[in-house]
Design brief:
HAD-IA family hydrolase; single chain; HAD-like_sf; five-stranded parallel β-sheet; alpha/beta; two-stranded antiparallel ribbon; hydrolase activity; Rossmann fold
């Protein structure tokens, strides 16, 4: 294996809880809700699927169905889809819906999984190229920089910058090309069998991790180091 491609959300980083997300935006706006009201609003936002990187919607309204299917193809579609879902929940000020969207794009809203730095650093020390391939509608590079992981990533291939989204093999092909790696020598690591599994159509090996809160998944990325170890080739 010459390179590893990683998904972003649910793989290397996890988003904050819906309650933390809402609380931060309310604080910034100088607004308050009682604890019970806040918890209820956060739960409603989660059920609506309004937090990118969080739970998927329990139900996508018909009027948002097309937006939802294509949300990661552009920044405009991404914002429209998620603020559309958010607006299904009544909040104290309508401006909070855009503020919530803006909050999720900040480094403070994300935390790396506990083993992410160790795994990325070790791959760099072994001379293995690393790419990030993400279905997303905004530039996640500042998140990596803020958390000290950008130095370990050789290329970012983001759906909104290419107008295509996983599982389209073209997105994985762009990452392989950027790393000058043959897809058959590349491992894709992600949390979505549907989206990240698309790399298999290109000839990449695929390894899945569970999309769990950061505190509940301390070491799921470490097996990647075993898969990329020189002796793994001899065992295969």
């Amino acid at each position: 294996m010459a390179a590893v491609l990683f998904d972003f959300s649910g793989t290397l980083f996890g988003i904050e809880s819906s309650e933390s997300w809402l609380r931060a935006v309310l604080d910034d706006a100088g607004l308050t809700l009682g604890e019970r009201e806040l918890a209820e609003a956060a739960r409603a936002l989660e059920e609506a699927g309004a937090l990118p990187g969080g739970a998927f919607p329990e139900r996508v309204p018909d009027e948002l169905a097309e937006l939802w299917e294509n949300r990661d193809r552009s920044a405009e579609l991404h914002r429209a889809a998620y603020t559309g879902l958010s607006r299904r929940v009544r909040l104290p000020d309508p401006a909070l819906h855009d503020a919530l969207y803006d909050r999720h794009r900040t480094p403070a809203a994300w935390a790396p999984y506990p083993d992410a730095a160790e795994v990325l650093r070790t791959l760099r020390e072994r001379g293995i190229a690393v790419g990030v391939v993400s279905n997303i509608g905004w530039d996640l590079r500042p998140v990596f920089r803020a958390h000290g992981l950008d130095a370990f990533v050789d290329t970012y291939v983001l759906s909104y910058e290419h107008g295509i989204q996983k599982p389209d093999p073209r997105l994985f092909a762009a990452a392989c090309a950027a790393l000058d790696a043959d897809p058959e020598d590349v491992l894709m690591v992600g949390d979505s069998r549907e989206a990240d599994g698309g790399a298999a159509a290109l000839g990449c090996a695929v390894h899945f991790v569970d999309h769990l809160p950061v505190a509940e998944r301390p070491d799921a990325l470490r097996p990647v180091l075993d898969l990329m170890a020189p002796e793994a080739e001899h065992r295969a």
